[in-house]
Specification:
By secondary structure, this protein is α/β, with parallel strands linked by helices. It folds into two domains: 3-68, no CATH class; 121-232, 2-Layer Sandwich (Zincin-like). Helix content is 36%, strand content 27%. The protein is built from six helices and eleven strands. Strands 1-2-4-3 form a four-stranded mixed beta sheet, with helices on one face. The chain has a four-stranded mixed beta sheet with strand order 5-6-8-7, with helices on one face. A hairpin with a 4-residue loop joins strand 3 and strand 4. Helix 3 packs across helix 4 (189-201) and helix 4 packs across helix 6 (223-232). The chain is globular, with a radius of gyration of 20 Å.
């Protein structure tokens, strides 16, 4: 696929222009800060792009403001009493010094225990907790993925979890491979499901066009509510910077 990138400035708003082998223009605003991208057919005239962007200016401003007002987590220090989220629920961290192998577990309904060596650094604590999140998310995905593949009528060839700075998920159409953002381990399960459905639907329709939206409406009628919930939850301090 041929792809080129440029920029367009309208009313002090910068828009990334992506020219590629598609038939229609598509406008999108991405979390966390409201990055704007306009995808357009390769030979689209610059003036056509400018007029299209101007016609969508009100829509753009609303979505950018929504993302900018989204709450941000402060930088995590991994100390006692600090808030951490698991599947959308808030837990208070309890750091337990011990000499054995590191371990993370949930105690009761309010505590997240982090068992580490007494001299463990902030970076080491962060890595241990991140790997625990990764393990939990990887354990949760297969059942949801299989269920939604059957409902949608598609089959992915592979999937994985990784830290992503600008997206909750991605889908490689050619390879039928899905990637899910590690941050989803902190969000409610329905938000994870929404991203899985979104990425699987790309196996039926590559672009975010009317056909894609119609599919989403059929497969997950309340997807807009789940999307809004996901985009209203606090985002990580470091992981959403362009």
């Amino acid at each position: 696929m041929t792809t080129s990138k440029d920029k367009l400035a309208i009313a002090n708003i910068e828009i990334d222009i992506i020219r590629k082998d598609i038939k229609n223009m598509h406008l999108a605003v991405y979390p966390p800060t409201g990055r704007i991208r306009l995808s357009a057919p390769v030979k689209t005239d610059d003036e056509v792009l400018r007029l299209f962007a101007i016609s969508k200016l009100g829509w753009i401003k609303r979505h950018v403001e929504n993302f900018k007002s989204q709450p941000r987590e402060s930088e995590r220090e991994f100390v006692d009493g600090e808030s951490h989220y698991v599947k959308g629920k808030r837990y208070l961290l309890k750091v337990v010094p011990q000499t054995g192998s590191p371990n993370v577990s949930i105690k009761g309904t309010k505590e997240l225990l982090l068992e580490v060596k007494p001299d463990a650094s902030r970076a080491e604590k962060s890595k241990i907790l991140k790997e625990w999140y990764r393990k939990n998310l990887k354990a949760e995905i297969p059942e949801l993925l299989t269920m939604w593949e059957k409902r949608i009528g598609v089959k992915s060839n592979d999937w994985g979890v990784k830290q992503m700075r600008t997206k909750w998920g991605t889908c490689n159409i050619q390879e039928k491979r899905i990637w899910l953002n590690l941050e989803l381990a902190k969000k409610p399960t329905i938000c994870l499901e929404y991203i899985i459905v979104h990425e699987l639907t790309h196996l039926l329709e590559r672009n975010h066009n009317e056909r894609f939206i119609q599919y989403m409406d059929i497969f997950m009628p309340k997807w807009r509510l789940h999307r809004d919930e996901l985009n209203s939850l606090p985002v990580a301090h470091n992981d959403w910077v362009y």
